[in-house]
Design a protein that fits this description.
Length: about 350
């Protein structure tokens, strides 16, 4: 074939190259080993020697032109094809992946503890903590419960394998630790786990309490009633019926137990409130002078009130749960219901 014909062919190809496949075909046809350009070079021997130089130059020019065209069109095609692919394969980064890991949720008791702590913080209380393996002295003796005193039987205790230590039966030893550690004014709460040999639908061997302690000059029982009523109103977000019953704790005098109207049955009487319509949710009272003295605080100068509430009971009432065990069995079907916490 003549150079002129090949140039014409090139012009025709130029018009119809659309894809990178076409372009590759074109490259083979013109620039490949058996392509037109090689053929033209092979014809060289049939060209009269005086024309060869000129002939060679022309072929090279044509080859360069073809190479340039292929490079340029190649880039265009690549860009167009990429754009097309990106359009077709749009990634939606907001779609969930194939293997969505199940998302956990906050345990209802954790949620309730956080809520209780938040309410007391808003009322000016600071947060304290104490150990779960506690000194017997702090759990009992310094709280005005001497050894052999029948009051120790009120809280059936788990003892540990070390003389003088036990699993704390209430959060009240944090009162002792706080008073030993600093001088009044004191206004603290202490959330934490406690342990007792108890087991029924409203009693668990391990449960949660939040202790409260206020010590200052001129603190009285009415202050305590106000704080507790206000807390209950904020926690249940309604004016729940509250009653203060005279009671006995060795570490407070006078003492009270606080009940709220059973929200499970609306006060009609059910399994949870044992038919009474009321549920005991906390113990409270004025800190006994013996306790203040044992902790180095002069009872003539200072008074205090204290309270201890059962977190599990609060959670049961808030969410209408009729068996405390549900909080500890980790049944996902139960826990899932508290996803919004
Ligand atoms: C006490 O533990 C006192 N330390 C509370 C206190 C503190 C009184 C400061 C005065 C001053 P009580 O044993 O009543 O008191 O327990 C307090 C609350 O814990 C109860 O009202 C109840 O709501 C909850 N509670 C008691 N035993 C269990 C249990 N086994 N399971 C779940 N909740 C319980």
């Amino acid at each position: 074939m003549e150079l002129g014909e090949i140039r014409n062919l090139f012009e025709e190809w130029k018009k119809r190259v659309e894809t990178s496949k076409d372009l590759e075909e074109m490259r083979q046809t013109f620039l490949g080993k058996k392509g037109y350009i090689s053929q033209l070079f092979r014809e060289m021997k049939n060209i009269p020697p005086e024309r060869r130089r000129e002939y060679g130059r022309e072929i090279n020019l044509l080859r360069e032109e073809i190479e340039n065209f292929i490079r340029q069109r190649g880039e265009e095609i690549k860009e167009r094809e990429l754009e097309k692919r990106l359009k077709a394969e749009r990634f939606d980064l907001s779609l969930p992946g194939d293997t969505v890991l199940p998302l956990g949720s906050k345990h209802p008791l954790s949620g309730v503890i956080e809520e209780i702590v938040e309410i007391f913080k808003q009322m000016g209380f600071a947060v304290e903590t104490g150990p779960e393996i506690e000194r017997e002295e702090y759990n009992f003796d310094m709280l005005n419960i001497p050894k052999e005193h029948p009051a120790r039987d009120m809280q059936d205790t788990f003892y540990v394998n070390r003389e003088g230590y036990l699993l704390r039966t209430h959060t009240s030893p944090v009162q002792v630790r706080t008073m030993l550690g600093r001088k009044p004014p004191i206004q603290i709460i202490a959330p934490g786990r406690v342990y007792r040999r108890d087991d029924d639908p409203t009693h668990s061997p391990m449960f949660f309490q939040v202790e409260g302690l206020v010590v200052n000059r001129d603190v009285n029982f009415a202050n305590m009633m106000f704080v507790l009523r206000e807390f209950l109103r904020r926690f249940f977000e309604t004016d729940v019926p509250v009653r203060f019953r005279p009671s006995y704790f060795p570490f407070t005098e006078p003492s009270a137990e606080v009940d709220i109207g059973c929200v499970i049955c609306g006060g009609e009487g059910c399994r949870v409130c044992k038919g009474t319509g009321w549920l005991e949710v906390l113990g409270a009272g004025m800190v006994h002078p013996n306790v203040l003295s044992a902790c180095g605080i002069d009872p003539e100068e200072y008074q205090g009130f204290a309270f201890g509430l059962g977190v599990d009971r609060f959670a049961m009432l808030k969410y209408g749960v009729d068996n405390i065990k549900l909080f500890y069995e980790n049944d996902v079907r139960f826990l899932k219901q508290f996803k919004s916490l």
